[in-house]
From TrEMBL:
GO term, biological process aspect, one: Gram-negative-bacterium-type cell wall biogenesis
Keywords of this entry: Membrane, Transmembrane, Transmembrane helix
InterPro entries documented for this protein: Cell_Envelope_Assoc, DUF218, Rossmann-like_a/b/a_fold
Name listed for the protein in its UniProt record: YdcF family protein
Superkingdom of this protein's organism: Bacteria
Species name: Dankookia rubra
Length: 262
């Protein structure tokens, strides 16, 4: 039920949709002679205008991405690498027959590089589908095809394909893997998603090291001049969703900390 409710609520709450709905509401009220309609219209249109001019996505994402710094020294021994879903495009893969990746592709490429440097490690992917209308392929199916094409031996891979969110990723993968005390496991996901992921994995019983990838914040004039409005909106919405997710998971008892830290 929580999965379905979260999907249904996010559609009107996501910043881009909410801004458009506010703008339309305000214009409709103004058309009917309600002068106070200028306020929701100004709020909706003003937000989109500010986002087009300013990199508002950066202050939303940066605290999330900086919370768990990437280790400066790679562990000498790695028992396993857990990779969270979210980087593959199931419907495109199903339609075209080739593994399709999105902007979080580093979630899928970084683990392969780690695996080649650590022949003792095993690779575990966790992800079913996050859609209310799933297709024929799960995220795990796409990951299996991609990593097989990249030459990863089948005996070094394991796949969990029932989970639909980060909480289920942590719980289901813990049951699948059964990590032992003293083992070294890395958690690979987007840097902005790492605080919520680490909180949930710790709650599920994991002793695991954050290995963030897919950074979206930087510095310099590029963040002002080179990033398009659609990208800014997408990144702002992603960051907003992570902050909402942190609060929701804490209230539901899925993590012990509101903003997990190293």
């Amino acid at each position: 039920m929580a999965f379905v409710v979260s999907k249904l609520l996010w559609w009107p709450l996501r910043p881009g949709t909410a801004a458009i709905l506010l703008g339309l509401l305000g214009l409709g009220l103004l058309w009917r002679g309600r002068r106070w309609g200028r306020w929701p219209a100004l709020a909706g249109i003003g937000f989109l205008g500010l986002l087009a001019l300013l990199p508002l996505d950066q202050p939303v994402l940066r605290p999330l991405e900086d919370r768990f710094p990437r280790p400066t020294v790679e562990p000498a021994h790695i028992d396993g690498i857990v990779v969270l879903g979210g980087a593959v495009e199931q419907r495109l893969t199903e339609a075209r027959g080739l593994p399709a990746l999105n902007g979080a592709a580093e979630r899928m490429t970084e683990p392969v590089a780690l695996l080649r440097r650590h022949p003792e490690a095993r690779l575990v992917f966790t992800g079913g589908t996050a859609s209310l209308a799933p297709g024929a392929l799960s995220e795990a199916d796409v990951a299996r095809q991609l990593w097989s094409d990249l030459g990863v031996p089948p005996e070094r891979m394991a796949f969990e394909q029932e989970s639909r969110n980060t909480h289920e990723n942590a719980v289901n993968t813990f049951r699948l893997v059964g990590p032992k005390p003293g083992e070294t496991w890395l958690l690979v996901t987007s840097a902005s998603h790492m605080p919520r992921s680490m909180g949930v994995f710790r709650k599920a019983g994991w002793q695991i090291t954050a290995w963030p990838v897919n950074y979206r914040t930087g510095s310099g004039s590029g963040i002002w001049l080179e990033v398009s409005f659609p990208v800014r909106l997408q990144e702002f919405e992603w960051g907003t969703r992570e902050w909402i997710g942190l609060v929701a998971y804490w209230l539901m008892g899925r993590t012990d900390a509101l903003f997990p830290a190293p």
